[in-house]
Fold this protein.
Amino acid sequence: MKKKALSVLSIFALTGSLLAGCGSSTTQTPTPAPAPAAGSTNESSGAQVQLEDTLVVAGNGATVEKLMKDEVFKKFNEKYPNVKLTYVSGVSTEIVAKVKAQKNSPQIDLTIVEGGEQEKGRQEGLWETVSAADIPNMKNVPDDLKITEDSGVVVNFTPMGISYNSELVKEKGLPVPASWNDLAKPEVKGNITMTDVASNFGRSTMIMLAYANGGSERVIEPGFEKMATIAGYMPTFAKSAAQLQQNLQSKTAAYTTWTMARSLTQKEAGLPLEFVFPAEGGNIVPNVATLVKGAKHPQAAKAFVDFLLTDEVQTMYATKLYYNPATAVKLPDDVAKTLEFDRSKVVNFDYDVISKETSAWLDRFNKEIAPKTGK
């Protein structure tokens, strides 16, 4: 497995000054795209198109930002040297909020955000429709990863589940988790760290606890009942992934709920974490590339998304960030084995329902569940 001098997804501001600077045009005249390699074309209706000389991409920071700037951007510019690339980092909620605020004068051309936030943006009418006519490599993304109304395209994903510190679990004689319901066992009290439902991690956990007890995102009551029990096992709910990481590193907690990609990243950094995809299954967290409606540089954006779906970049996502590729790329055997999980047990969340219900869930959570922590 390749080592990476990278950190995990973190929270960053999207500054107006950066956007203003990267949004300005250069004196270059857009040039025709060079003859593309097979599988990485940017042709529409059989005619080669011109790429604009600028592209502004917004996505997660830390490891993702570093990979983009250090490797993906450089490889893209080998193919399209006239395109000046700028990266704006932030968490998905911030990025979608920024795009919404700039709706009348977009400064971002392309976003790469988590599926739930992408759906919120779709409901706000923020994204252009995409198709294989403009992004040929979309045809390599399987149907189970398709995005509603073709309002974006999945470029990678990672499953949600339970991570545990194997050394701490052995030392304390704690149970090895196999089910979402194991988080509510009395013997794990005092050994859990979790985010609240404002975070995708906590929200996905509550929904999967509902599924594990006969409910779903449409019938969320069983999830609230289990979260009420778990709340009493913790001094407080964490507010960020960074806080979860700190609690695991300090050994104040042995278990958490987050993605396999995060768990593997921390394991490589030296934390003895094991990831469990629970018996009831779990959701996946897709990262979705979306073209901002009315953006200034649509052709460059389409070419960039198509490039993200090439075997080269899909392999980078897997080997450097532990994201599962969105296409059927052949990975090194050790990487493929590391990223294995039971795809037959994936629970496909209805993001339309979740987007509409999240505000009410959060309000109820803050009133009924959060006050139970430490009791």
